[in-house]
Amino acid sequence: MSEKPVRRELVIAAMLISTFMAAVEVTVISTAMPTIVAKLGGFSLFSWAFGAYLLTQAVVTPLYGRLADSFGRKRVYLASAGLFLVGSLLCGCAWSMVSLIVFRAVQGIGGGGLAPLATIIIGDVSEPAERPRMLGYVSGIWGISAIIGPLLGAFFVHSLGWPFVFWVNLPIGLVAMAMVARFLHEPPRTGRHQPIDLPGAALLVLGIGVIMLVLVEVELLTATGIVGLLGLGLLALLAFAWRERRMADPLLAAHLLRRRMILAANVSAALCGSLLLGTASFLPTWVQGVAGGDALLAGVVLGVLCVCWTLTAMALGRHLARLRFRPVAISGSIVLVAGVCGLLTVAPQQTVLWLSICCVAIGAGLGTQSLVFTVAVQSSVARTDRGRAMGLFFFSRLLGQALGTAAFGGVLNRGLAQAAPGTHDIVRELVDNVRRAALARSELNRLIGTLAGALHSVFILAAIIAVGALLVTLFVPPREQLGREL
Fold first, then answer.
1. What was the pLDDT predicted at 339?
2. How deeply is 251 buried, as exposed, middle or buried, from its count of CB atoms within 10 A (0-12, 13-18, 19+)?
3. Which of 141, 193, 307, 479 is most buried, most CB within 10 Å of its CB?
4. What are phi and psi of 362, to 5 degrees?
5. Integer Cα distance of 482 and 374 in angstroms
């Protein structure tokens, strides 16, 4: 094998390692968060531990796509990964939920480049016909990580301590950075670099952040406060849109949305992103708080979801270049709807077996949607626009995750407040083994019923979003074929 193919395989390996790091971050945190809340308190801020990370990720993701097109993939990737590792180190040092949220925001600024840059770099070094298979491996890494991540999370929570769910990123990230620094070689960049629109980014953060605040804290806000905050968020987003139209090189490549396929891909990414975080964030709460399981059992349930994501993506990746887009996307979304609707039938007295069966369908549906739309976006633009296109795609996904997490958290908080005012620390009571054992049987059953009812409202919202993802696939071009390139 010549030097060039060897170098290409090593670069792809580094990107898979980087994807593993990003994937482990999600699965380890989702499983460990109930325990972290039990240690740090502040259950009412539960959603912000995810939301701060996702909000900063969403805003900087299109910046990374632009920077990668202008300054080269290598140096931008190294900067992104380095900042992510600094944030991971700080998260493990958090002493309260507020400090954890701040450090998660730092982590998100770095993490916003990991997944899109890995996808862009793999797209650059792969032939068009190979791209679906390579991206199938990327999707598969998420499932592999989901098996290892929950196990690591449970191990760290029960032995070394919860900070290691963040610190586990450090050795993995350093290995990926070393491989990229050594093996990724790019041609010299030419042309003038456009300045980054920091005021536009600030307006975007303000607009989305205020809307997230309303979604999460709706129960604590007055009607006047809700209207005022929504008005402020809308005004900030309108100012951002006005500024974008006048920028020579805007933050978001919104002109790409004029293409029907890319518009459908970005809407689907937002819906599926919110659905992924809605399930990954709150299924462990059901397993540990309602069913009385531990972090390991919660990890197994999430592992089922992501393993099915993996198997589906890897199987599709081998044949996707020869398939039509629309039938594959519709089939995946139907399976997704079936799995999410299955969550509506879960009852407190049931074992987690039915929950795991639902995760099989959810994982298969999300795996199909993620892979198909990722390949569709990469195949719909030229190489010179690939960074911007993928930045917009991952922005849509992260925006959906951020707003979805806030919406799911708001629904949960509202359900708890209506059923039993003043019990927002209910998870702390039910997840901590000592506290749970000290509860009287009648009180334990009451708290379990309250939490189960609030989570059932979360599952209803998830079902609505899944149906929306299905409707999106019905409006895409029927004759598009994957695996081609402009």
1. 93
2. buried
3. 141
4. -65, -45
5. 10
Q: Quote the CA–CA distance of 50 and 230 in Å, as a whole number.
A: 21
Three-state secondary-structure class, residue 478: coil
Residues near 249 by beta carbon (within 8 Å), at least 6 away in sequence: 66, 194, 197
The enclosing H or E element of 443 equals helix 441-473
Q: Could you give phi then psi for residue 117, rounded to 5 degrees? A: -70, -35
Say which residue, 167 or 60, is predicted with more confidence. Answer: 167
Angle at 121 between CA 384 and CA 374, to 5 degrees: 80
pLDDT at 35 over 80: no
The residue written with tokens 């139209």 in the block is: 245
Q: What is the pLDDT of residues 223-245, one digit of tens each?
A: 888 888 888 888 988 998 888 77
pLDDT of amino acid 235: 93
Contact of 416 with 458, CB cutoff 8 Å: no
- 301-310 average pLDDT score: 80
As given in the structure block, the two tokens for residue 65 are 């796509």
Q: What one-letter code names the amino acid at 122?
A: I
**Residue 380 token pair:** 């719909």
* pLDDT of 2 strictly over 50: no
- The Cα–Cα gap between 128 and 375 comes to 10
Report the C-alpha dihedral over residues 217, 219, 220, 226, rounded to 10 degrees. Answer: 70
pLDDT computed for residue 378 by the predictor: 74
Q: What is the residue-wise DSSP string for 76-112?
A: HHHHHHHHHHHHHHHHTT--SHHHHHHHHHHHHHHHT
- Alpha-carbon gap, residue 275 to 269, rounded angstroms: 10
| Cβ count within 10 A of residue 155 | 17
Phi first, then psi, for residue 324 (nearest 5°) are -80, 145
Determine contact, residues 106/295, Cβ cutoff 8 Å: no
